[in-house]
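Supplementary Methods S3. Complex input for the shikimate-3-phosphate-bound model.
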Amino acid sequence: MRQQIMPSKGLRGTLTIPGDKSISHRSIMFGSLAEGDTEITGFLYGDDCLSTVGAFRSMGIAIDVTEEKIVVHGKGLHGLEEPENYIDVGNSGTTIRLISGILAGQAFNTVLTGDASIRKRPMGRVIRPLSQMGARIIGRQGNTLAPLAIEGTRLQAICYQSPVASAQVKSAVLLAGLYADGWTEVVEPSLSRNHTELMLRSFGAEVECAGNRARVKGHPRLLGQRIEVPGDISSAAYLLVAGSVIAGSEIELKNVGLNPTRTGILDVLLDMGADLTIGNQRESGGELMGDIVVRSAKLHGTTIAGDLIPRLVDEIPVLAVAAACADGVTEIHDAQELKVKESNRLETIAQGLRAFGCDITVLEDGLRIVGGKPLAAGAVCDSFGDHRIAMSMTIAALAAEGAADIDGFEAVSVSWPSFWSDMQGLEVK
Ligand code: S3P
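Predicted complex, serialized as structure tokens:
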């Protein structure tokens, strides 16, 4: 679907950001493995998280979905049943990688697959450590690509030195560790988001974390919980950038997740000169949250690299838009992981911003953006089936000098089905 977008006259008002995608996935997974009911409010009803709901329903878990809450009727660590068919994860990397860890330790077999993007994304990164634990997983192309066939078996605990800072890899290993004797440990090159560690602990597992290490003790008794999912800072990111770069904007974002492993976007935008005020901070289930007010401001270029990257990995496309609107040069390094996301985001963001006349170069490990030139009218860009590219291009279009078109706009439903109507609700008429 093609969406035409007119330049914005300013965005003003208050918005409650949709629920955090990572936390929503985990709430269904851990709720299914817990004894008793788990009640979830603030759940993200996006396509990805609904794929996780479908996966656990197919394994015999009753999940009641209503507008105000979700109730997962968990059946304990050994309560899953063999699904009658393959499990289709759609576009969701989090679903396929995390449940691979869970399924490796079951007493039954499963087959996992997903859409064309999922079938291109690297699965060797989870198959390798899980195989070290004794898992039996095969996949296409020498066990590197989905579909994956998993023969459930007994697992052994390991200490895994992960070559990538990836919460999906870390979580797959830790979740397999629930089914192994003793402590299963993951050491990462930089700390990735720690929602699995925090939520497993709140469900009753023994989890220990120190620096870039996390470990879990096998065979815990998980008990159903009440979970309040905070708003997704990765979704808030579009408004933090839009509110900064579109003159005359002032937006209050309610209930945004502020877990420090996710707030790199705030550090970078503040460093670029953004006007952000954070208030009403509180905690629920170990997760910090608060409200953020963003007002338009003159941004300048910066450098984004190193340990910051995992703390803002999903926000790089929209940060590239901020950089295009900022004075001076922005360089992003150590961001090779972007090549294996829902699309090759280094390429797709560069292609999109070039349609607006932006001077952007794809580097071996990131991007170089020469900012400050107004974004030109008449851009036609593509989402490449990637929700974050569709939304980032929308922000560029709102900040541009004239109308722009985005093809494949429907991809936004992966993480923010009401994105367009929410944006229009903030538009100054
Ligand atoms: C996620 C981890 C990140 C992130 C993805 C969600 C998660 O992926 O990009 O959107 O929920 O664990 P990687 O683990 O591949 O970095």
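The longest helix spans residues 21-33. The mean pLDDT is 98.
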